[in-house]
Amino acid sequence: MIVDLAITLAKVFFILAVTVGFFAPVLTWVERKQSAIMQDRIGANRADIMGFTALGLFHIIADAAKMFFKEDFIPDGANKVLHTLAPVIALVPALLTFAVIPFGGQYNLFGKEVNLVISDLDVGLLFVFAIASLATYGYVVAGWSSNNNWSLLGSMRTASQMVSYEVTLGLTIIGVLMVYGSMQLTQIGAAQENFWHWGFFLQPLGFFMFMTASIAENKRIPFDNPEAESELVAGYFTEYSGLKFGMFFMAEFIEIVTIAAIVTILFFGAWHIPFVTTATLLSIFDFLGTTGSNLVLMFIHVGVFFTKVLIFIFIQMTIRWSLPRFRYDQIMKLGWKILLPLALANIVVTGVVILALS
Amino acid sequence: MELLIFYPLAIACVVLSMLVVFNSSPIASAMSLIGMMLCLAGVFVVLQAHFLAALQVIIYAGAIMVLFMFVIMLLNLSDDDKQWVARERNLFLSVSAGALILGVLYKFIDITSGTEFNSPAEVPDTFGTVRQVGTTLFTDFVLPFEVASILLLVAMIGAVVLAKSKVD
């Protein structure tokens, strides 16, 4: 009982350390540096300690210090309770999603089966969508409670955009569910040990639609209409400053990691290495004993998983700095007239193929 | 153990649904309704119906209520400034009518389900899983399921027709 609790706590600490402690701050640096390289600038070299810039890594500390000491401003006529609550509503779902995301398989350590997921829910994938759909309120309430027309316009765009793309997102994964016959993320991951059974080969169209819809859900360029700084100042978080703004910022970066992790699990073989099965790896390290070989296997799998996650984060960042913002009507048209029929067609084709093969 | 989770959830459900009625600001009412739906999803989890709980959050709390909020913001509804007044004459009548309806509901559930309230029914391990719900829905309850889907389709087509006639 106590051992189980300790294992769960260790997993929670690991996930929090990786997302909040590592990815969220480092991604702010990656975004600055990558945009600088892509736009042929020197970039991110102003914060230094005794003239030493560490490639701009000190900007992370500078950012944090700035957010902590900035005045926390609540505009006149704003709804104080909701204005304070909104960033929390936006950030908590982003963190909660990781409760069901497996970052490794199952390992036999010291005679105990350890499953590298905090909570292995039967409805894992649905849980992710349930939590993600709640995040909408953070953005909607933020704009409404600010007593500012730009904010209100931004949050109305958020509401319509997120509801539209949630439909596509939900329909896209139905193809994946049909192929693997499970909603449990650990089972979907385990089913992709064979390289040709990766979701990308079984659901190629599904992958591209999922990626598009999830970037739209995260409201990043080219889908950043809700904040559109050239039209709406900063959209729904115009009236936010200091740490509250930081929470919106952090939610966005953590969602980048979430999207990368889910894409990895659903479409790119989760923690598996192409053409190398778990059994092969175990037999290579057989001389270390059961616990030893399982331990090595665990580190390899976790490493492989986060490498894949990093690749998909890089792809998202590249998209963000390559494309201009779409117009609002173009986004709606893409969601309802192109992605939705394609997602429905994908389900029909998948169903027919599964029926023909069985 | 289960009761320790159930009672706070149930109390929160009741309190939040009362707040939906008593709040003067439409947005606060909508927020209370969202909170109530989340608590209801929690009650479903206590009842082992995980699939239903997830759907409750996705559809009601996640999709329908976002549209509610959208409409409230779009119409820019202001707070209802009318005070709540309980009319003296009707107070006794309304309280007793409410109590009667509650009693009838209790008796109704008691007769139809045929189980005692203090002895929860045993459920198999697979109860409430996605597979089990799907199998039940497409075998025993396939007719109500199809009827409900046709109803939704009709509503959808009706909405399109109504919206289109205004545009043309």
Can you characterise this structure?
The complex is a heterodimer of chains A (358) and B (168). Chain A has 358 residues and is an all-alpha fold. Chain A has one domain. Chain A is 68% helix and 2% strand. A two-stranded antiparallel sheet of chain A has the order 1-2. In chain A, helix 5 (149-180) packs antiparallel against helix 8 (204-217) and helix 10 (242-267) crosses helix 12. Chain A starts with a helix and ends with a helix. With 168 residues, chain B is mainly α. Chain B is 77% helix and 0% strand. The termini of chain B are far apart. The model of chain B has no long low-confidence stretch (mean pLDDT 82). Chain A binds chain B through residues 79, 82, 121-123, 126-127, 129-131, 133-134, 136-137, 140-141, 143-144, 152, 155-156, 159-160, 162-163, 166, 170, 183, and chain B through 27, 31, 34, 38, 50-51, 53-55, 57-58, 61-63, 66-67, 69-70, 73-74, 129-130.
Low-confidence stretches of chain B: none
CATH class of the largest domain in chain B: Mainly Alpha
Measured on Cα atoms, how large is the radius of gyration of chain B?
A: 20 Å
> Order of strands in the sheet with the most strands of chain A?
1-2
The share of residues in helices of chain A is 55-70%
Query: Which fold does the CATH topology of the largest domain in chain B refer to?
Result: Four Helix Bundle (Hemerythrin (Met), subunit A)
Helix/strand-derived class of chain B? mainly alpha
* Backbone structural class of chain A: mainly alpha
Instruction: Specify the overall morphology of chain A.
Output: globular
Average of pLDDT of chain B: 82
Percent of residues in helices of chain B: over 70%
* Oligomer status: heterodimer
Q: Could you give me the name of the CATH homologous superfamily of the largest domain in chain B?
A: NADH-ubiquinone/plastoquinone oxidoreductase chain 6, subunit NuoJ
The count of strands of chain B amounts to 0
Largest sheet of chain A: 2 strands, antiparallel
Order of helices and strands of chain B: HHHHHH
